[in-house]
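Pipeline run #58 for the internal structure catalog. This entry was flagged by the ingest filter as a single-chain record with no existing model, so it goes straight to prediction. Upstream metadata was stripped on purpose; only the residue string is passed forward. Reviewer on rotation: M.T. Logging verbosity set to normal.
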Amino acid sequence: MARHPVQVIAVTGGKGGVGKSNVSVNLAIALAEMGRRVVVLDADLGLANIDILLGISSNKTIENVLQGECDLREVMVKGPAGIRIVPASSGTQKLSQLNAMEHAGLIQAFSDIGDDIDVLIVDTAAGISDSVMSFVRAAQEVLVVVTDEPTSITDAYAQIKLLNRDYGVFRFRMVANMVRTPQEGQALFQKLTKVTDRFLEVAMQYVGAIPMDDAVRRAVQRQKAVVDVYPRSKASTAFRALAKKVDAWPLPSSPRGHLEFFVDRLLQEVEA
């Protein structure tokens, strides 16, 4: 039986504090508003924050799936615009240090719901731990979030370099977050590509900028997504523009086009 193709997007960034989870959630809602069936995996396994961002509580988390106590459908929580969220369990040390087999089991759980998803957004932890790397390399698209801080570009470069050199990932898309002007976003991309072009064999694409907007801060305080509660804000407009671009990315052709491929990539790592 031909499987339904799923766009798997890892949202990542070299350092914490760049607004990755905010980008993941608002992109997910904007895509759902366009009619896509979107699931967000909170893969920041040691420090879950999507449930906090949206004020959603769940009795069950990924941990229960890993322990075989329930399946993924029982864990998923409905969010705005019908997005579904798979919550991580905040601060659970064990989940921060999954072995490769447990990782594969986690992704296997996703293959069971593959026909019911159009887009899977994986909100990863910051940095370059094994857990981050295996999620990112298994995704078809890598969206790197950067901000206008010197360490953000440096850390993003370190992550791209590692993914390229050790895992063979060569295509990266970049979004600039919390920018003061559109030009600032372009300048950040140029800063990053100046070093990637010189030292790495990678394809970098700039997909846009999310402006600095007080509506985002107000939404976070209310534990809501800005796209949901301030739909006319500058940030919301930018998230919808980003969603349109993401929606136009080509769907991977088989066998990369379904969630089992995501599993296969992780299993290859186990067997290596």
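catalog note: Residues 7-266 form a domain with the Rossmann fold fold (CATH 3.40.50.300).
catalog note: The longest strand covers residues 171-179.
status: ready for reviewer M.T.
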